[in-house]
Design a protein that fits this description.
Length: 274
């Protein structure tokens, strides 16, 4: 369009948001981040069902988690994020619990980037941080658990791919029978996500939002030989300054002996960029 540039376009915020924190699937990290001095708030409601308690204490467990995250960008490559979960557990055959779970503090640093266009990009970032104790008697590990990993993101046309690998060193011994990744065993987390932009086919000055179909494989392998892979599918709607996401998941591979098995999970969430 004659005389039009990204800087002067009314939909520049949409393109900048997509380049900064866009195309991140619900359960898979991305190598994107808020710009310097920009804030990003995200809230996600997740409902999960577990059964087959190896201790034979709880028959079934329903778990509702509200994860609230706030992130800020600083410098040209870095961002920091704090995630604090509020958890509620209904335990058939046991006592119910409600409170604040262990928060996660992470720093993300972009080590490499190759831009292919206004939005198209290849990026790699390192993730380091720790899960911190909340102090809740039943919902906290009462330990500081370091986390280290990396994530690669590719955005090309209507396609997006995120691939992440993280290691979590569990220094405590917490509810090995229930929560995946929270026991005395260390955890290796791997995630792979594919996003396809359903609309628009091409960005234009009148574009207000983009809609994506998302597919994820979220894997967890623990050093006690428990492992699982969850297949998730959902939708992501990204506007200029906010986004909506929803997804549902079922176990694709599940071989666990030290904790309960996950039957299914669903979640919805919102994001705001300001």
């Amino acid at each position: 369009m004659p005389g039009w540039t990204l800087r002067s376009s009314p939909f520049a915020l949409l393109l900048l948001a997509a380049a900064a924190v866009g195309q991140e699937a619900p359960n898979t990290p991305a190598a994107t981040r808020p710009a310097d001095g920009q804030w990003y708030f995200r809230t996600r409601l997740q409902i999960e069902s577990f059964d087959d308690d190896p201790r034979r204490v709880v028959d079934e467990l329903s778990r509702v988690t509200l994860r609230n995250s706030i992130a800020v960008g600083f410098g040209s490559r870095w961002s920091a994020e704090l995630m604090a979960p509020v958890e509620a557990e209904a335990r058939e055959g046991g006592s119910d619990e409600f409170g604040v779970g262990d928060p996660m503090l992470t720093v993300k640093g972009r080590l490499w980037q190759r831009d292919l266009g206004p939005v198209d990009s290849l990026r790699f970032a390192v993730i380091l941080g720790a899960e911190l104790p909340s102090g809740h008697d039943e919902l906290s590990s009462d330990s500081v658990d370091p986390v280290l990993g990396g994530v690669f993101t590719a955005i090309v046309g209507r396609h997006g791919v995120n691939a992440a690998l993280r290691r979590k060193w569990n220094t405590g011994d917490f509810r090995a029978y229930a929560v995946p990744g929270d026991s005395s065993a260390d955890a290796l987390l791997w995630d792979l996500a594919y996003l396809y932009r359903l609309s628009p086919e091409l960005y234009a000055p009148e574009t207000e939002a983009a809609t994506y179909f998302t597919v994820e494989l979220n894997g967890l392998h623990e050093t006690n030989d428990d492992h699982e892979t969850i297949l998730r599918a959902g939708l992501l709607y990204e506007a200029r300054e906010w986004a909506f996401e929803c997804t549902a998941g079922l176990p694709l591979i599940e071989d666990v002996d030290a904790r309960m098995e996950r039957e299914w999970s669903i979640e919805i969430g919102f994001r705001w960029l300001f």
